[in-house]
Write a structure and sequence with these properties.
By secondary structure, this protein is α/β, with parallel strands linked by helices. The chain contains 13 helices and seven strands. A hairpin with a 2-residue loop joins β3 (68-73) and β4 (76-81).
């Protein structure tokens, strides 16, 4: 994702720390590194040791060019933006570092942590999905609102969230850059043990996304590995996909030629309200 693709960037949330604007000297304070607690909403879980060591060396030689952003809390400070700078600074002999102290709500702290990483393109797809989930479940964003805020498509955000349904082992491989999102998406229809089997096949044989999809289809045809076996009529499957594209959530159609039912799975109250509004609009 490009920086321009983000709907509401860091400059909107932290205007005083815009990269294109000089920060007034009197707004920057030197604060003790030991008094800064990490951002609890930091979505990034994997940090490159080599990259941090390079940054630490640069800090020792040139100092910290851009101050971190913190908020005051419980007699100390909580990091809002600048995780890599803080980690690298702790690897040096510096006891203090420059910081801009501002007031932020919990919601803003979580949003800034996500946007900062998206702008740097630092997050892997699982970390990104976990961050979306936090903003939706803990801070009341609907998927539609979050997609607009980040400048993403609604369907793209939904597809990213679906990756959280992968098994723990497969998610771990994605987080460590062993597998790509494209390679693992077809695994979502498989049981956990079969997901890991296919993941090992990808690693050992270097399968691309299309080959993974073919392997998953073979497993499902053999009656193995599916989370729930469903003999789906191609017309029903097409109807499901049309409905999912229209309303943006998972849809299952179950039944026969005479009768059946449509199951719509929504992920938060905002989804339900949006779907109901769609039906109301039709009169």
């Amino acid at each position: 994702m490009s920086k321009k693709g983000l709907g509401r960037g860091l400059n909107a949330l932290i205007p005083e720390v815009s990269q294109n604007k000089e920060i007034p000297g009197n707004s920057i304070k030197q604060i003790s590194v030991n008094k800064i607690r990490p951002n609890p909403y930091q979505p990034r879980k994997v940090f490159s040791t080599e990259s941090l060591e390079d940054l630490a060396q640069s800090i020792e030689q040139h100092g910290i060019v851009q101050p971190i952003v913190v908020r005051e809390i419980d007699g100390g400070y909580e990091l809002v933006a600048g995780e890599r700078r803080l980690r690298a600074c702790k690897m040096t002999n510096l006891s203090k570092m420059p910081a801009v102290i501002q007031e932020f709500s919990e919601k803003e702290v979580a949003e800034i942590a996500l946007i900062e990483n998206l702008q740097r393109e630092d997050l892997n797809i699982i970390e990104e999905a976990e961050a979306y989930k936090t903003l939706i479940e803990d801070f009341g964003f609907s998927q539609e609102q979050l997609a607009q805020r980040l400048g993403k498509s609604r369907s793209g955000l939904t597809n990213t969230l679906r990756l959280l349904n992968l098994s723990k082992d497969v998610k771990h491989l994605v987080m460590n850059d062993k597998l790509t999102a494209g390679q693992v998406r077809p695994l979502l229809s498989l049981a956990d043990e079969e997901q890991f089997f296919v993941a090992k096949e990808i690693l050992s044989k270097g399968l691309n996304s299309r080959q993974v999809e073919q392997l998953c289809n073979k497993l499902k045809k053999k009656g193995k590995g599916t989370k729930k076996e469903r003999n789906i009529d191609p017309n029903i499957k097409e109807a499901e996909e049309v409905l999912m594209e229209k309303i943006g959530v998972n849809v299952k159609i179950k039944g026969n030629n005479k009768k059946g039912k449509i199951e719509i799975k929504y992920y938060e109250q905002g989804d339900l309200n949006r779907i109901l509004d769609m039906f109301h609009d039709k009169g």
